[in-house]
């Protein structure tokens, strides 16, 4: 029997609130990371559901969740159905880890970075203080930080790029097989972004790590990721390999996103997609593309959501199935 995929997400739906205030952040989202070493990009505009997807996979959710359905299988185990005690003990940070958009969210500002990293190791079973210290030094060296001096610093004493590297070190502390990176470079300037991408590439090659790389920057994602999910209004617009989605984009929204990528040629104007993303309180059971003519699907009907159709092997596109 073949091994199950590293991560298999099926029909994942997530809503907050109820009644007229119900907001559907994810609507039947499905994708697969087949094996170690794969990197999946999740791209889309702000409000498309990217960060909600990260929270749903980690099962770190607010109290006002009104619907959470579908499955999230890690090596065949549905972690969505696991109790909180099991998730905390054996899944989060040990098998699936997370680097949030703001690295400062990882650290307590009143404690030294090294102390926090060592305490994380201690909570998860590394009892010997010398072993904890040695591991903290190793992790900082791994991500390109000065192990001795930087471990002694407080979060506010590190630059933005250094804090991001420290957050990656924290995410790797318990040797997970999958790391979710939520806009890890959005707060950094272009020169620092390249360094973080190079670091992530090196770590993947060295440890066979898999990534879910959440970003609005398509160009940056192509440097790291070999497959793409394009999200819009909580739904998948397009999904497949990097070559399929980027080189043979089929959905109007994907093509519109790619057209907005700057080429930095003299005199080029910055392009944007006309219209606004949909109100997530109004998309359940409807087509999220319909209100925005520039990306409206062929055969689009306002009150009928599209379905994912496999247009070539492994390449899925949201389409409306027209009845005869």
Automatic annotation (TrEMBL):
It comes from the Bacteria. InterPro entries: AAA+_ATPase, ABC_Ni/Peptide_Import, ABC_transporter-like_ATP-bd, ABC_transporter-like_CS, Oligopep_ABC_C, P-loop_NTPase. Pfam families: ABC_tran, oligo_HPY. Keywords: ATP-binding, Cell membrane, Membrane, Nucleotide-binding, Transport. It is a peripheral membrane protein. The keyword Metal-binding does not apply. GO terms for cellular component: plasma membrane. One of its GO terms (molecular function) is ATP hydrolysis activity. GO terms for biological process: peptide transport. The keyword ATP-binding applies. Residues 7-258 form the ABC transporter domain. It is found in: Cell membrane. Belongs to the ABC transporter superfamily. NCBIfam families: oligo_HPY. This is ABC transporter domain-containing protein.
């Amino acid at each position: 029997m073949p091994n199950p995929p590293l991560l298999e997400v099926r029909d994942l739906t997530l809503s907050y609130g109820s009644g007229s205030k119900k907001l559907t952040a994810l609507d039947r989202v499905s994708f697969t990371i087949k094996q170690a070493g794969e990197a999946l990009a999740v791209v889309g505009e702000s409000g498309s559901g990217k960060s909600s997807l990260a929270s749903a996979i980690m099962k770190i959710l607010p109290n006002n969740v009104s619907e959470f359905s579908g499955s999230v299988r890690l090596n065949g185990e549905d972690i969505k159905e696991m109790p909180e005690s099991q998730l905390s003990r054996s899944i989060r940070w040990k098998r699936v880890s997370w680097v949030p958009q703001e690295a400062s969210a990882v650290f307590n500002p009143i404690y030294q970075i090294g102390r926090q990293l060592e305490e994380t190791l201690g909570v998860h079973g590394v009892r010997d203080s010398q072993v904890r210290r040695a591991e903290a030094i190793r992790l900082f060296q791994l991500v390109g930080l000065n192990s001795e001096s930087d471990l002694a610093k407080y979060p506010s004493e590190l630059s933005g790029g250094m804090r991001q590297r420290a957050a990656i070190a924290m995410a790797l502390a318990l040797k997970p097989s999958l790391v979710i990176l939520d806009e890890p470079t959005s707060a950094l300037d272009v020169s620092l972004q390249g360094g973080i991408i190079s670091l992530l590439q090196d770590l993947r090659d060295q440890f066979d790590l898999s990534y879910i790389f959440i970003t609005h920057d398509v160009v940056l994602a192509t440097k790291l990721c070999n497959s793409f999910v394009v999200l819009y209004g909580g739904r998948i617009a397009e999904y497949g390999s990097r070559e399929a989605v980027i080189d043979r984009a089929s959905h109007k929204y994907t093509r519109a996103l790619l057209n907005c990528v700057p080429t930095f040629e003299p005199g080029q104007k910055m392009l944007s997609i006309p219209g606004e993303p949909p109100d997530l309180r109004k998309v359940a059971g409807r087509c999220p593309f319909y209100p925005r003519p520039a990306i409206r699907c062929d055969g689009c009907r306002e009150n009928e959501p599209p379905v994912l159709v496999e247009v070539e092997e492994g390449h899925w596109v949201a389409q409306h199935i027209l009845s005869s």
